Model the fold of this input.
Amino acid sequence: MESEERTSKPGTHTLGTCLSETPCEPSAKPGCSECLSISVARENARSTFDYSAVSDANVRMRQHHAASHAS
Done:
């Protein structure tokens, strides 16, 4: 079996994964019990190193903001 060279030619652009800074986490709106609940769940997940649940909480917070706190 012949080996295949996996280098790109100069001047070509290959699509791939770009590593960048993660977006800021959404914060709880003062006085909103749903925001507080999601925020507490996120911090509990973070304290147990469950970063998948942290990410899920961020998604829920963004969805809640869009549905309940849209300007």
